[in-house]
Specification:
heterodimer; A: about 120 residues; mainly beta; 4-stranded antiparallel β-sheet; 11 strands; about 50% strand; B: about 110 residues; 6-stranded mixed β-sheet; 5-stranded antiparallel β-sheet
C-alpha cells in the first residue's frame, strides 16, 4: 500500500498570500488529521476530518481551515499568511475514526516558508 | 508550565546502552502515544497505550495512569535509533492530542 502523500513538499509564499496544502491518506483510511510543527511551539494539532466532517479542531485562528473530500483526500488552507505560519505541516491518516485513539500514519510533511 | 513534559531534552548514548525517556503529564488522558521523528521530518508511530506496558522489538513503553507518567525504553541502543522521540497524550476532555517538546537522542558507535 502506498503511504500518506503530501503535496507540495516545499512552498515559499509572502505575507498576505494564501496557501492550500494537500494530503492523500493511505487507501481505505477515512480519518485525516493535520498538525503544525515549529521550532518554538513544537507539534500542535490543527484539525481532524472523518468521512468529510470536521471531527475536532485545535486552537488556531479562523485563517486556518480544511476540508475532506469523498475519496478521503484532504486539503488545508491558510489565508492571509503571517511570518509565524512558517512551519512544517504534517498530515496523518488512520483506518478508524477518532484518530487520537488509533495508530496514525504520517506523511512526509509540507515545509512552508513565509517571507 | 506545559501540560506534557519530557525529560531529558537531549540524550547522548554509546551503542549498546539502555536508554530511558520520560513523559509526565498534568491533564486527564484517554491514551498516550510515543512517536519517533527522524531528521527531515518523517514521523513514525511507535506505541499507543492506555495502561500497562507494550513491547516491540527493542522498544518498551510503560504507563502509570495514577502517577501520570510514561517511559519509553530502548534496549541495546543502535546509531539508527538516533531521532527525536515525542510523547503525545489524548486529552480526556477534548479528545485532542497534546504533544511534548520531544527528546533528541543521539547514539554513537
Amino acid at each position: 500500500k502506498a503511504g500518506v502523500t503530501q503535496t507540495p513538499r516545499y512552498l515559499i509564499k509572502t505575507r498576505g498570500q494564501q496557501v492550500t496544502l494537500s494530503c492523500s491518506p493511505i487507501s481505505g483510511h477515512r480519518s485525516v488529521s493535520w498538525y503544525q510543527q515549529t521550532p518554538g511551539q513544537g507539534l500542535q494539532f490543527l484539525f481532524e476530518y472523518f468521512s468529510e466532517t470536521q471531527r475536532n479542531k485545535g486552537n488556531f485562528p479562523g485563517r486556518f481551515s480544511g476540508r475532506q473530500f469523498s475519496n478521503s483526500r484532504s486539503e488545508m488552507n491558510v489565508s492571509t499568511l503571517e511570518l509565524g505560519d512558517s512551519a512544517l505541516y504534517l498530515c496523518a491518516s488512520s483506518s478508524l475514526g477518532a484518530s487520537s485513539y488509533n495508530e496514525q500514519f504520517f506523511g512526509p510533511g509540507t515545509r512552508l516558508t513565509v517571507l | 508550565k506545559n501540560e506534557v513534559e519530557q525529560s531529558p531534552q537531549n540524550l547522548t548514548a554509546q551503542e549498546g546502552e539502555f536508554i530511558t525517556i520520560n513523559c509526565s503529564y498534568s491533564v486527564g488522558i484517554s491514551a498516550l502515544h510515543w512517536l519517533q521523528q527522524h531528521p527531515g521530518g518523517g514521523i513514525v508511530s511507535l506505541f499507543m497505550l492506555s495502561s500497562g506496558k507494550k513491547k516491540h522489538g527493542r522498544l518498551i513503553a510503560t504507563i502509570n495512569i495514577q502517577e501520570k507518567h510514561s517511559s519509553l525504553h530502548i534496549t541495546a541502543s543502535h546509531p539508527r535509533d538516533s531521532a527525536v522521540y515525542i510523547c503525545a497524550v489524548v486529552s480526556y476532555n477534548t479528545d485532542k492530542l497534546i504533544f511534548g517538546t520531544g527528546t533528541r537522542l543521539q547514539v554513537f558507535p
